[in-house]
Design goal:
- The protein contains 4 helices and 9 strands, in the order E-H-E-E-E-E-H-E-E-H-E-E-H.
- With 136 residues, the protein is α/β, with parallel strands linked by helices.
- The protein has a single domain, classed as CBS-domain, CATH 3.10.580.
- The strands form 3 sheets. A 4-stranded mixed beta sheet has the order 1-2-3-6. It has a 3-stranded mixed beta sheet with strand order 7-8-9. Strands 4-5 form a two-stranded antiparallel sheet.
- The longest helix has 13 residues, at 123-135.
- The radius of gyration is 16 Å and the shape is globular.
- The protein starts with 13 loop residues before the first strand and ends with a helix.
């Protein structure tokens, strides 16, 4: 079983220069928590998650979080995780599962053999794969 069988394709993406409000709205509309980030040439340069849009509200209250000022003046490139770990579409499910467990990933962009983004594998996709394996 390979991850191409369970990834979400095509993925919902963001651009480096998208505003955070625009990105947040797209996440909510598409019901996704992670979005690969592309540059103007369509190359993968990062990943942004709902967690990236949260930060400590102050040093006095480190356990409280709030969203960045979610306007379009703050750009995705300021909040994203650059150079994300990726997986190839033909990676076996067990390899991806182990990576998710070891690195505590919520999602990983999936690339084709020509290094083009073709999907995203999320923890929800992984759970769906586990459920299918359990049925078999």
């Amino acid at each position: 079983m390979q991850i191409r069988d369970y990834m979400t394709a095509p993925p919902t993406t963001a651009n480096l220069r998208d505003g955070l409000r625009q990105t947040w709205d797209r996440m909510q509309e598409r019901r996704v928590r992670h979005m690969p980030v592309l540059d103007d040439d369509g190359r993968l340069v990062g990943i942004i998650s709902e967690r990236d849009l949260r930060r400590p509200s102050s040093l006095d209250e480190p356990n409280l979080t709030h969203l960045y000022a979610l306007d379009n003046n703050t750009l995705v490139e300021e909040a994203m995780t650059p150079e994300p770990k990726t997986l190839r579409e033909d990676v076996e499910f067990a390899v991806a599962r182990d990576l998710f467990i070891q690195r505590r990933f919520g999602a990983v962009p999936v690339m084709d053999m020509n290094d083009r983004l073709i999907g995203i594998l999320s923890i929800v996709d992984m759970l769906r794969a586990c459920a299918d394996q359990h049925k078999a």
